Amino acid sequence: MVMSVEFVEGGSVQLRVKRSGMYQRVVFRMVAEPSPAGKYKLLVAERQIGIHELSNLSNEVGLPIRAAGIIVFPKGKSSLDFLLK
After folding, report:
1. Among 83, 80, 55, 59, which residue's Cα sits nearest to residue 70?
2. Does the CA dihedral 85-77-8-31 come out positive or negative?
3. CA–CA distance from 46 to each of 29, 50, 66 (Å)?
4. Cα separation of 42 and 63, whole Å?
5. Of 9, 65, 68, 83, which residue is most buried, by most CB within 10 angstroms?
6. CA torsion sign, 37 to 52 to 24 to 60?
7. What is the pLDDT of residues 7-48, one digit of tens each?
8. Cα 58 to the chain's mean position, in Å?
9. CB-CB contact of 27 with 10 (8 Å)
């Protein structure tokens, strides 16, 4: 379970991820992703992670996550909910 993640662009956070049937700690970079509405905050992993696990992580952390070119948002949210001010 993830308690909270404070967004600091260029920073990183370690999350526990289930990969290939076992749990691993994966480092995610925090980036500001450009969109037509403006930049929004996003966690990025260099490793490939299954979409189901990405979805679970995104819902638990409350932030969008990108891994292997796939971006997943928490349930019921879009990039507009994460715009940087």
Report:
1. 55
2. negative
3. 9, 13, 9
4. 6
5. 65
6. positive
7. 666 788 888 887 778 888 888 999 999 999 999 999 999 988
8. 6
9. no
Query: 31, 29, 25: which is closest to 13 by C-alpha?
Result: 29
CA distance 8 to 6: 6
Distance CA 25, CA 45 (A): 11
For the stretch 38-70, pLDDT in tens is 999 999 999 888 899 899 999 988 999 999 999
79: tokens are 């990039």
Tokens of 31: 């980036």
Which two tokens mark 76? 């019921």
